[in-house]
Amino acid sequence: MIVTGDTTRLALTAASFAAYGLACLLPWLRQRKKRAAAKATGSDGWIVAHASQTGTGAELAEQTAATLRLAGIGVRLCEIGALTAETLQQTERILFIASTYGEGDAPDAAAAFADALMARQLPLPRLHYGVLALGDRSYAHFCGFGRALDGWLAAQGAQPLFERIDVDRGAAPAIGLWRQQLSHLAGTSDAPDWGAPAFAPWRLAARHLVNPGSAGAPVYHVELLPETGELPAWQSGDLVQVAAPADPDHPREYSIASIPADGRVHLLVRLHRHDDGSPGVASGWLCAGAAVGATVALRLRQHRRFRLEENFARPLILIGNGSGIAGLRGHLRARAAVGQGRNWLLFGERNAAHDLHYGAELHALRDAGMLERLDLAFSRDQPERLYVQDVLRRQAGALAEWMRQDAAIYVCGSLDGMAGGVDTALRDILGKEQVDALATQGRYRRDVY
Predict the structure, then answer these.
(1) Distance between CA atoms of residues 396 and 390, nearest Å
(2) What is the rounded distance in angstroms from the CA atom of residue 265 to the CA atom of residue 113?
(3) Per CATH, the architecture of 200-304 is what?
């Protein structure tokens, strides 16, 4: 190393280093400024946006984001309902995971997005996108929302990264095709494990009929315990998947009617019969085919769209019919366990004499101050039909007051009739804008089937 005392040479050397440093610094500053601006508009990296009714779409979105992050790609994960027109116009790459609710509708959290944005023209020339559409071919409008979203994006000038992928009831080949497209986009063949937890052996510990003498189909209270290991944790609102021996590739989902403190998973299962009189594959097995003590292949599944989460401290309005009382019972038991009694249950069935499922328990909760209001609708107990949505309309004033007190609404039960009727009643009483806002905020949640 040569050391010099020539001040002129030292000055020139320092100036050269300074110029070099400035030349390197300026592009970095420009890029930093660009990234900050992009971050402010939501256009930094990729967006993975999901619309999910029962949580499957949200889980796939999380797995999609994890795959991209593993490849070093920046990802923002959000619900489709959180996307604005500005975000869509300024973002270059968005992957959509879009479930369909009912006969082609958007899930609750994406309903406002569909109404406000997909009903208008919105030029999207810089957007490149992919759509994973989730659905069930037994419905007339299979993957209806995902297909509508794909068509709307294309009509606005957005460019598809690949053809839309339609998934029938979680079919593994279609999910595999989505993963393959992700690998191509990310430039990696390595990815996190997307496999769902394996089914575990559980024991059918108890079962009894809860509606003897009913004019409707038999409904059974079912209790299950793991055959090995400790009882796993879950939250009220979660689901179980049961794989019946006759059709293990298509598990059926049931709302959990208990909390871990109960020591068992409780289900409320209605025995379904097909038009030819044959029993449903899973319900027939759980209600009659499997003997008490038999082994049941089961796994728990988080249902984040129906959990209490940030609504736990709010007043709760619980609305349901039939076996939908199962998911609502879980919430009531979770709240009662911590002394939270600001609960209002509106429940409907056929006849009071035979169909008030868990009736003694509900009355006990009310007497203990854990159920502030209990409104019941029995459709066959009077000449004119009376349904839970009719009772809701009669209590419009009380509903408006509870909503002013920051209440959250949870609906569980049948898609046909009840869920649509309740939704219409809510929109008539509260207004469409408020109901859409409640859904976006997570204060209006549904588990309907």
Answers:
(1) 10
(2) 36
(3) Beta Barrel (2.40)
User: What amino acid is encoded at 12 in this protein?
Assistant: L
Q: Could you read off the pLDDT of 301-317 as tens digits, one per residue?
A: 999 889 999 999 999 99
Residues pairing with 209 in the sheet: 220
How much is the pTM?
A: 0.80
Strands 46-51 and 444-448: unpaired
Separation of alpha carbons 2 and 9, rounded Å: 12
Angle at alpha carbon of residue 407, lines to 401 and 410, rounded to 5°: 120
Which tokens is 401 given?
């007051």
Domain 309-448: give its CATH architecture.
Answer: 3-Layer(aba) Sandwich (3.40)
The ranges assigned to domains in the chain are 43-187, 200-304, 309-448
Domain 43-187 belongs in CATH node 3.40.50.11440:
no
Please compute, for residue 120, the number of CA atoms within 13 A of its CA located in the half-sphere on the CB side: 9
**Whether the domain at 43-187 and the domain at 309-448 fall into the same CATH topology:** yes
In angstroms, the CA 142 to CA 66 distance is 28
pLDDT tens readout for residues 104-114: 899 988 999 99
350: helix, coil or strand?
coil
Q: What is the DSSP string of 202-213?
A: EEEEEEEES-TT
